[in-house]
Amino acid sequence: MAERNYTLVTEFFLTAFTERLQWRVPLFLVFLSFYLATMLGNTGMILLIRGDRRLHTPMYFFLSHLSLVDVCYASTVIPQMLAVLWENGTTISQARCAAQFFLFTFFASIDCYLLAIMAYDRYAAVCQPLLYVTIMTEKACWGLVTGAYVAGFFSAFVRTVTAFTLSFCGNNEINFIFCDLPPLLKLSCGDSYTQEVVIIVFAVFVMPVCILVILVSYLFIIVAILHIPSAGGPAKTFSTCASHLTAVALFFGTLIFMYLRDNTGQSSEGDRVVSVLYTVVAPMLNPLIYSLRNKEVKEAVRKALSKSKAARRP
């Protein structure tokens, strides 16, 4: 039996998308443009919501936090990815790798919780319209958001501590866009069964619970929509929820494919492509999805643009 190299690893070498040298510059420019679009779109959404009093409602309050988290979420991953492409692979210490994994898990968990909270908010607005104001008070909104941040921190802390109590040895190359769990587990040596169980339990708890809240909320919403008597009522009501459903499908669909499946014999190249969808594409598309599908946001954008044009006139 061949002996495995048990030299302990103290740093990792990220090499994602560096196999084809001819694609380095095009990919660098594409990801850079995506990152700039993410920053511009989400920051613009936050400023738009803060600046327009018509958007000072619970739904947009949650949306502003989703945009803030998406900015932080993208900034945790994309700059590192750009460095990998620019330098044709880059070295990252174990401490920096752990910090990146913690921040990624922290913001990804908050994203999951916020999408579930937004589904509950739509349920309350559509199914309990007379009680909506008393259900979604300012105190309740802040409590839900604070709970999402606290739960995200707890989940990220436990998963990070558990993952980095593992020993890594032999090959230190991570052919992935950042320090994520699946490639790290491949580099671990020794018995990792306990750590893997704890990590998987937390992953299974966060995603399915959030998905269950979303599915149940929208089941009640669909039933309520079908009972709206007017001809245009169902379409108008559902249009307010369509943008949220699009964001949910994009984000959770890619996460489920990546984490809640059998990892044996999986394609590394396929995993890298999927990881780009939930770390790069989803945060960029969220502002676009909500602005294109939402009448109030489009009106607020037009109002802001008209004010900007008026301010430039002599």
Automatic annotation (TrEMBL):
It holds the Pfam family 7tm_4. It is a multi-pass membrane protein. It comes from the Eukaryota. It is found in: Cell membrane; Membrane. Gene3D superfamilies: Rhodopsin 7-helix transmembrane proteins (1.20.1070.10). The keyword Cell inner membrane does not apply. The chain crosses the membrane at residues 27-49, 61-86, 98-120, 140-158, 197-226, 238-260, 272-292. InterPro entries: GPCR_Rhodpsn, GPCR_Rhodpsn_7TM, Olfact_rcpt. One of its GO terms (molecular function) is olfactory receptor activity. Signal peptide: none annotated. The keyword Transmembrane helix applies. Keywords: Cell membrane, G-protein coupled receptor, Membrane, Olfaction, Receptor, Sensory transduction, Transducer, Transmembrane, Transmembrane helix. Its main location: membrane. One of its GO terms (cellular component) is plasma membrane. Residues 41-290 form the G-protein coupled receptors family 1 profile domain. Belongs to the G-protein coupled receptor 1 family. This is Olfactory receptor. It comes from Piliocolobus tephrosceles.
